[in-house]
Design brief:
Number of helices: 9
Order of helices and strands: HHEEEHEHEHHEEHEHH
Shape: globular
Strand content: 15-25%
Helix content: 25-40%
Largest sheet: 8 strands, mixed
């Protein structure tokens, strides 16, 4: 009976994973997420625009003496769709591991195009750096993290100092950055939805994160599905990791076998963690960093 129940449970979870691939029902993952691992403050402004809002997931577990490590998460969606409320499962997952998590919206195309959404992300990260201690976080243990287009945003903030400099901060203030299935070298742009975001055919060369990897950078975690039909993991994740390593950056590289572009992020959620140890690896990376 137990083996039959286990088989049914595995089959149901596999079905959920397939459904996530087909239509990205993050609402299902949100509904299945625990609610006792965090307290939520929703809709805090980091700028004047209605899209410049963020949610804070504070772990209910006791904080270390210096405060919880903190991570600002940016979601994907080709820079033209996405809502922070759809990623409660990410906030819950990280908070359950003792990471104070901020999930931020940013302006999208067609309201803005490159580089305005990066200015939003830099504002959100500057807000997080300023407010970390007051939220119960460790101001010396702040990370920026993203998935897909959000991983691009995180990479640009971590590797190209222009964006944080505009907010009177610097990447060196971060304890590290985490990119999941990010596009880091994607010219010529094939996706017709992405072309206008980056002014195709006049895509600025400096818009590519790979262009900013030729110097030592902050600690980096780069994860991807080994087989990703949307963002080539070899051209993007592996190439960026190797370029960063060649210039002295400490890089943790993970390629996961049982996930795809979408379920890589879904594997952070409790029902899909059997697919890949993404949450375990991200937690280990965050907690490896010594306090300054």
């Amino acid at each position: 009976m137990n083996s039959r129940r286990s088989l049914l449970r595995t089959g149901g979870l596999t079905g959920l994973a397939l459904g996530l691939t087909a239509c990205a029902p993050t609402r299902v993952l949100n509904a299945l997420a625990d609610s006792d691992t965090y307290t939520l403050k929703a809709g805090l402004p980091y700028g004047p625009d209605p899209r410049q809002r963020l949610d804070i997931y504070t772990p209910t577990r006791a904080a270390p003496g210096a405060g919880h490590p903190a991570a600002l998460f940016f979601y994907g969606g080709s820079w033209n769709k996405g809502e922070r409320a759809d990623y409660r499962f990410v906030g819950e997952a990280l908070a359950s591991r003792g990471v104070l998590t901020v999930v931020a919206d940013y302006r999208l195309h067609p309201q803005v195009s490159y580089p305005d959404f990066l200015r939003d992300c830099a504002q959100a990260l500057a807000w997080t750096l300023r407010e970390a201690r007051g939220m119960g976080g460790d101001a010396h243990q702040v990370f920026v993290m993203g998935h897909s287009a959000g991983a691009y945003n995180a990479a640009m903030l971590a590797l190209d100092p222009r964006w944080l400099a505009a907010e009177h901060h610097a990447p060196q203030q971060l304890a590290g950055w985490i990119g999941l299935a990010g596009p880091y070298d994607f010219v010529p742009i094939v996706n017709p939805d992405v072309r206008p975001v980056f002014h195709h055919p006049d895509v600025p060369p400096e818009s590519q994160p790979i262009r900013h990897a030729d110097h030592a950078a902050i600690r980096s975690f780069l994860g991807a599905a080994a087989e990703d039909s949307l963002v080539d993991p070899q051209r993007n994740t592996v190439q960026l990791a190797r370029r960063l390593e060649a210039h002295g950056t400490n890089v943790s590289l993970r390629l996961y076998e049982r996930v795809n572009h979408v379920t890589l992020a879904g594997a952070l959620a409790r029902p899909l963690r059997f697919l890949a140890p993404v949450l375990d690896d991200v937690e280990a990376f965050i907690k490896q960093t010594p306090t300054a």
